[in-house]
Automatic annotation (TrEMBL):
Domain of life, per lineage: Bacteria
NCBIfam families: PRK11715.1-1
Keyword Transmembrane listed: yes
Entries under Pfam families matching the protein: CreD
TM region positions: 304-323, 330-349, 355-375, 382-402, 408-426
Protein name per UniProt: Inner membrane protein
Keywords from the UniProt entry: Membrane, Transmembrane, Transmembrane helix
Organism ancestry: Bacteria, Pseudomonadati, Pseudomonadota, Betaproteobacteria, Burkholderiales
PANTHER family reported in the protein's UniProt record: INNER MEMBRANE PROTEIN CRED
């Protein structure tokens, strides 16, 4: 065969290779569009879950933040800056307790809106507060010649959503007090209050409050006292502790959790800020979180979708090179679609089944379909089983990436490096010039 004929055939082979690579690039873009559509569906379902949560919040009660009891007294100062004028100012004197103890149990009470489960709770709490000094309830005048007059002493208890108050009993020295809605505090209006008599000089005041409070997902307590101790128990197995203070002691098991917080006014300005009516207050909190959010996990899985498709295409292409078996771009497309629809199957199943079960079903179905298809595509069941086993390993690696969020980067990097090393090892003796039809390099 003449050199001209060889060169022409080599050019035709190169052209065919470039055309196939271009087609595969278009196939990859189409698969990216499919993954983007599935990711959009995940985001849509997440938005609907948030709408369902807002529906529960609007019809029941939202996350609860508890403040108090506090003592409140409305005062008015009158003074005369000149002979012909009289000025007045109204203000509120707020006194946090010296000691505050909160204890009780938070019982999960999940609500459902269609497919979506919303974590709500019913908490039965006992709150004990003690005051030893009442000087701040008799504030001095701030202006020369001023005279201060104050009203009744009010014990107030505030919550972020008063609709969640189910049953309340406020006692002083074991005697029930008449409780009325609202706090009479403009800064923290939602809650309840009761009028009490001013303690005698040198006498301590102790109030106890038994309250059943309902809320959604989060329960927080403001440590507005000289010393605050909070003890909570629950049957919820997956708490997330937040706020400004973590528990001093906590125990989480299959039976639930117990946690104890201890906060002093040396560590928190909550008492001073509450007395001043500030909006942002320190809290200690617990969230009833789901261990696995199917939408978050599906979204994270889709982010690895393109890497999966690329690794699979590399495997198929490598099989083409090493065995001489030709694979049509349409077959690449079908394999990529099977890999992409795995994520849609995972999303749909996880709305009805536990995520691990959904993942096993979706991965098993995808691996089974790709195994039988690869057996025909690559020319033999042995190759098909090897290909399906590789896909199963990829799904196993993906689950590890999803479940090990803190080490996902290093696992992914090691996985990619291992794949590259395997490809380089398998093709280290391959003559790429002869493969492209251009002849061996001189």
């Amino acid at each position: 065969m003449s050199s001209h004929r060889v060169a022409m055939l080599g050019g035709m082979n190169n052209r065919a290779l470039f055309i196939k690579l271009a087609i595969l690039a278009v196939v990859s873009l189409l698969l990216c569009a499919v993954l983007a559509q599935i990711d959009g569906l995940v985001n849509e379902r997440q938005a609907r879950q948030q709408e369902a949560q807002q529906s529960v919040v609007q019809s029941q009660a939202g996350p609860q933040t508890l403040l108090g009891p506090l003592l409140l007294r409305h005062c008015k100062e009158t003074w005369s800056p000149s002979k012909d004028s009289v000025q007045t100012r109204g203000f509120a004197a707020v006194l946090p307790p010296t000691q505050l103890q909160v204890g009780g149990r938070v019982s999960p009470d999940p609500r459902h809106r269609g497919l979506f489960k919303i974590n709500s709770y019913a908490g039965k709490l006992t709150i004990a507060a003690r005051w030893d000094d009442f000087e701040r309830l008799n504030p001095p005048a701030e202006n020369a010649g001023g005279r201060v007059e104050c009203g009744d002493v009010i014990a107030m208890f505030s919550t972020s959503d008063a609709r969640g108050l189910r049953d309340v009993e406020l006692k002083r020295d074991g005697r029930p007090l008449a409780v009325k809605p609202g706090t009479l505090n403009d800064a923290y209006p939602a809650g309840l209050h009761a009028v009490i008599a001013m303690p005698r000089s040198g006498e301590a005041l102790e109030l106890s409050l038994a309250v059943e409070v309902v809320g959604t997902q989060r329960l927080a307590v403001v440590p507005a006292a000289g010393s605050t101790a909070v003890n909570l128990q629950s049957s919820w197995q997956h708490p997330s502790f937040g706020g400004r203070f973590l528990p001093a002691e906590r125990e989480v098991s299959e039976a639930g959790f117990s946690a104890r917080w201890q906060v002093s006014e040396l560590a928190s300005r909550a008492a001073a800020d509450a007395a001043q009516g500030k909006a942002e207050l320190d809290t200690l909190a617990v969230d009833l979180m789901d261990p696995v959010n199917p939408y978050v996990m599906s979204d994270r899985a889709i982010k690895y979708g393109l890497m999966f498709i690329a690794l699979t295409f590399v495997t198929v292409g490598l099989t083409e090179v090493l065995t001489g078996r030709r694979v049509h771009p349409v077959q690449y497309l079908l394999v990529g679609l099977a890999l992409s629809l795995f994520f849609l199957l995972l999303l749909s199943l996880s709305e009805h089944l536990p995520f691990v079960t959904s993942y096993l079903i979706a991965a098993g179905a995808a691996a089974a379909v790709l195994t039988q298809y690869a057996a025909a595509m690559l020319g033999g069941w042995l190759r098909g089983l090897a290909f399906g086993g590789g896909i199963a390993l990829l799904y196993g690696a993906l689950y590890v990436l999803l479940s090990r969020e803190q080490t996902a980067l290093v696992i992914g990097a090691v996985l990619l490096f291992g794949v590259l090393a395997a490809v380089m090892t398998l093709t280290r003796r391959l003559d790429w010039y002869r493969l492209g039809g251009g002849g061996a390099q001189e």
